[in-house]
Write a structure and sequence with these properties.
By secondary structure, the chain is mainly α. About 80% of the residues lie in helices and about 0% in strands. The protein has helices at about 5-25, 30-45, 50-70. Keywords: Cytoplasm, Cytoskeleton.
Amino acid sequence: MSSRDTDRVASAQQTLDTLYDISQLLNTGLDRETLATCVEMIERGTNPEALAAVVQEMRKEKAALSARDVE
């Protein structure tokens, strides 16, 4: 791996670390892997508001399924 590639990877990791820290401060509940996936999707053109709506809907579905399992 060239020095330029190494710098690029380090920069990307630092950016993800910063985004994760912000995510934690905002209590988003996203782990690093999920956050990285969301960032990648947005970089590839996914509408951020649509992605946020999908994440929220999935959380509602998970909560509903968990509540149903408890009953």
